[in-house]
């Protein structure tokens, strides 16, 4: 979707403010909890990683931009538990549980945390479909404005670039975010020149790559 | 957040001890010192560097750094001709097993909006100025591939062992927003 999360190439946000390397990960105790609770709920398998990204990214743009990073996570988690029917709107309003919980197929115990993190969530999948493109091929990205989830940023739509790396088949977020299944397809790193993306005034030495699923690409 | 957490705990969906363990992992166990060890080894060990170029996921796993948000790794190597910079314009994708959780600036609108369009100006915000002749290569992490920048080895470090070299490798240098420290900068 063309949401506020798709920030590449926007103006007006001001300078980057670096942080010392000693800066802690979390800047308030509630941020710690927002992180831990989001991961623990994710581990219940009630939604996919792509669905959780979409829940955050589909916040109204003004709200997204006005929220801190972990506020966005918290709001995304509220949307996910509501949509999954795990928590009622009345319970969020009351700030406490009003009914017994649903039965979840999985729950993350403290003992299982190291193994779960070590396992992670690989997205590469076997496929019998041969790749349509090879390293070095010229490709053009599609022009699309889907209302649902996509990982093709606006700045890289309708642009011509070169396949730089072929990664095998990976889970397709555009379907997986919406209960449409993993629909694995080939994933490629596609490299564009700065002038292809930004036109006049682009840094002549710049190139930018994105990782693009086959469905995002035409031969060029 | 507190209310949401208590609802989820009361309903039996999450275990507070598991939440504590998740937080503790990234506050005390997994962070950019992991990546610094990978880089230092790549500087000192040509066979490891070659392995990192061929299959970064396997090479990094051989040092014990695996898992969430590092399932599919690619290492990119800075040279005098080419400087790499990593961003996630859409969210905050970042290689957790080697770098830990991203700093606030990496997740911020200024970095995400500008890194793909005017990376030299972004580098200036970090006090980094590259020669005009150094090409800039930006990697926008739009899928589950995670990128680790191997910065250039600082001059004057011939014969240093990996532990000493790792002290020169900063978090920012492994994103491409900084350079590795020189021996003078690292001197106490």
Explained architecture:
- Chain A has 220 residues and is α+β, with helices and mostly antiparallel strands.
- Chain A is 30% helix and 17% strand.
- In chain A, strands 1, 2, 3, 4, 5 and 6 form a 6-stranded antiparallel sheet that branches.
- Chain A starts with 28 loop residues before the first helix and ends with a strand.
- The model of chain A has no long low-confidence stretch (mean pLDDT 97).
- Chain B folds into 2 domains: 1-30, no CATH class; 31-186, Nitrile Hydratase, Chain A, CATH 3.90.330.10.
- Chain B contains 12 helices and 4 strands.
- The longest helix of chain B has 14 residues, at 16-29.
- The mean pLDDT of chain B is 97.
- The chains are: A alpha+beta (220), B alpha/beta (188).
- At the A-B interface, helix 1, helix 2, helix 4, helix 6 and strand 3 of A face helix 1, helix 2, helix 7, helix 8 and helix 9 of B.
- Strand 5 of chain A pairs parallel with strand 3 (135-140) of chain B.
List the helices and strands and how they pair.
The complex is a heterodimer of chains A (220) and B (188).
Chain A: H1 29-42, H2 49-57, H3 61-66, H4 69-83, H5 89-94, H6 113-119, E1 124-125, E2 138-141, E3 160-170, H7 173-176, E4 185-193, H8 194-198, E5 206-213, E6 217-219
Antiparallel strand pairs in A: 1-3, 2-3, 2-6, 3-4, 4-5
Chain B: H1 2-10, H2 16-29, H3 32-44, H4 46-54, H5 56-61, E1 72-77, E2 82-87, H6 96-99, H7 104-107, H8 109-114, H9 119-125, E3 135-140, E4 145-150, H10 162-166, H11 171-175, H12 183-186
Parallel strand pairs in B: 1-4, 2-3
Helix pairs in contact in B: 3-4
